[in-house]
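Components:
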Amino acid sequence: MRAQASVMHLDLDAFFASVEQRDKPSLRGKPVIVGGIGGRGVVSTASYEARTFGVRSAMSTREARALCGHAAFLYPRFHAYKRVSEQVFGILRDLSPLVEPLSLDEAFVDLAAAGLPDLEVDTVTATAERIRAEVAEVTGGLSASVGLASSKFIAKIASDLDKPDGLVVVAPGTELDLLRPMNVKVIPGVGPATAERLRRAGIHTVADLEQVSVEELVRLVGKSHGTNLYKLARAQDDRRIEPERETKSVSVEGTYDTDLTDRPLMEQILTRQATEVAARLKKNGLSGRTITIKVRLYDFTTINRSATLPAPTDQAGTIARLARTLLGELFTAGETAGGVRLLGVGVSGLADWIQEDLFGDDVDDEAEPDLPLPEPVRRPTWAAGMDVVHAEMGRGWVWGSGRGVVTVRFETAETPAGPVRSYAADDPDLQPYTES
DNA sequence: TCTGGGGTCCTAGGACCC
DNA sequence: TCTGGGGTCCTAGGACCC
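Structure:
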């Protein structure tokens, strides 16, 4: 805990949905749900309009449709979100060299390193307001909620208190007044399982938690978690803002609309996933020793099997072969008999150096499998709602598609009900839109 | 047709070594 | 004959986060 409210937590509001509404003006003011749209999809982000119908993140898309069937259901456009995220992080890094990203839409900023004249409440508040305005300007109207406090813990709670488009400062010294009446679930790290254990022990609020001894907490939730909770209940948190965090693992997984039972098909899926993992390792100059497969069965039980190599690898073939061997062991044991809904491959035990090719035979990247593989998410060439495109009239978005014809709606902030035109799906003038 | 995908951290047990 | 103890690595599973 610092003496001043020098920790800023910034969180972009309903981020994915907001980017979609920015790019597709006809969706503004309307319920927008971004997430998996297959039979087993879940909601990533719901716009605030959709939330009034009870739609929440992590809810199954099926349930979201039941609650809010008239919403626009969109598959995420990660590249677009990434671009916006980079703009926002640019603003934050101009402010302070100490920026810790938590995800595409969330970060901590250490204002003590920002070179402000002082760190009084008025000064940091004005700074945060300026940043919020800058974010809105640079991103084309996205709003951010900000919390300012003396620690990461309290800043994060604060940014949540006045969403969306809010700014909450917790004056140093008042942390416990804020915290004590709150439910223990506000503490990051207290999820459903921990909350239930605490509830059974009669602990509901942070004030309740504060009455419990470390020994008792350790008994209830384990050593690490217990000692952490003991401190957080007292608002004791001196964690630093860490701008660089090294990657510990790289993985690819997919959930399939129909349970998998065919072993050759599953092996091909693992092989393709291994190729993707290897490509990402190489792109980041990483290699790793431990290969893990993840198998989620029809009944949602999850099995992990791993094996560790003597030396790190970034070779698709090596990863794929080991992954297939591990899968084979599950088949032999009969574990896969009921069907598999999710399959994945990961590499951990990472080294940030590339293993020398000692024997010259390690270059064994396998070709893409030639069988057509099921897609975890079906994605036609041009799909309504999913694509922002560029065509002869400028920027538009795909309003509908089918039978080789794509209908594009051209909208800008100035002309929210812009014209609609149709194109042949293979019209070369129809290009995915990228920001210049 | 309940329950994504990409991660991090923790726990616990067994092997192995000194 | 009567089985210590600590450290490290590996594996598996679970909780949690966005």
